[in-house]
């Protein structure tokens, strides 16, 4: 089995969920993540929504997206990243899941709220609002991780 750094593990799974697992010899998990990503992506028409969003056609992105399928995407995507990260992390690292879990929650909420949210007359839509929602998810997750580790060292 190939060993890789935590950064490499996360970056491969950002590129495509399941790649880290395949590269490290976890073939069943890797294939499962690839198949799930493909099913969610195709059925949600996510690539079309991404294309329209980057072209500034947010209304078209909202019209094409299937929210019922896309709602699964953040949790599977973040779990795949955490699983890859976990396989590359030191055995004694605690609470590594928190940034990934809170990111999945916040991205999912951002997706749910995306049809209604507007910032200064800009409507970020179903791609950019969930991406922006990643930031508070990471901040809260890393903060909780830090606080729990700090609390543990004080006892």
Write the layout of secondary structure elements.
Layout: H1 6-15, H2 19-23, H3 27-44, H4 46-54, H5 58-64, H6 67-70, H7 73-88, H8 97-113, H9 125-154
Outline the structure in words.
With about 160 residues, the chain is mainly alpha-helical. The chain has one domain. It contains nine helices and no strands. Helix 4 packs antiparallel against helix 5, helix 4 packs across helix 9 (about 125-155) and helix 7 (about 75-90) runs antiparallel to helix 8 (about 95-115). About 35% of the residues are buried. The mean pLDDT is about 90.
Q: Which band does the percent of strand residues land in?
A: under 5%
- Poorly predicted runs of 5 or more residues: none
Order of helices and strands: HHHHHHHHH
Helical content band = over 70%
Distance between the termini: 37 Å
Q: What is the averaged pLDDT score? A: 92
Count of separate structural domains:
1
- Briefly note the structural class of the backbone: mainly alpha
**How many β-strands, per DSSP?**
0
